[in-house]
Amino acid sequence: MINFVIVVDAQRDFMMPDGALYVAGAEALIAPMNDMLASLSPSETAGVLLTFDTHEAEPYARSDEGQQFALHCVRGSKGSATVLDVGAVDPEIPLYTLEKGVFAMWEEADVTIRNARDPGADFVPRDEFFDRLQAQGVEEIVAIGVAADFCVRWAVEGLIERGFRISVPAALTRGIVRQIDAVAAEEWSAAKVAIV
Q1: Number of H helices, E strands in the chain
Q2: Which residue has the higher pLDDT, 87 or 72?
Q3: What is the pTM of this model?
Q4: From 10, 65, 116, 134, which residue has the greatest number of CB atoms within 10 Å?
Q5: CATH number, residue 177
Q6: How many domains does the chain have?
């Protein structure tokens, strides 16, 4: 079975203790996440998508999220960069990125997905990209990253709405208030989501 991997917001501001919006314990995920990415097989993996929380200081201060959380993941800052070794992903596996300005990667209408291996390639509208995955026969998506009870939660909910089966390795995500097993029990009890 061919699957697809989404790495949600594995950025310095979330993953490191000195980050602007550190998720407690997230730095312990880095090595196992890198191991997981390095273990992916091109024959079984349709691609890897890294999402990036991306903000501009002034609009963020006026946003609903800005009322809840300190400014973080400012475009181009050290804190916005991934902490993962994306070079560990087999070069035969397509690698993509998505920038979002809000918690949910599905909320903004104009979000596009970029081919990280070919910066000159056309950006693909997010919904069209996921329609293409389904047309290619991708049925299962593995989701890892932070935070389990915010951006991972909403990434998974959008995937559920689009008819994918989802697998979330509990050891490769961390929450701020709730961990992924609690999120699954409370939010997705009737959905095709496996916490592994």
Answers
A1: 7, 9
A2: 87
A3: 0.95
A4: 10
A5: 3.40.50.850
A6: 1
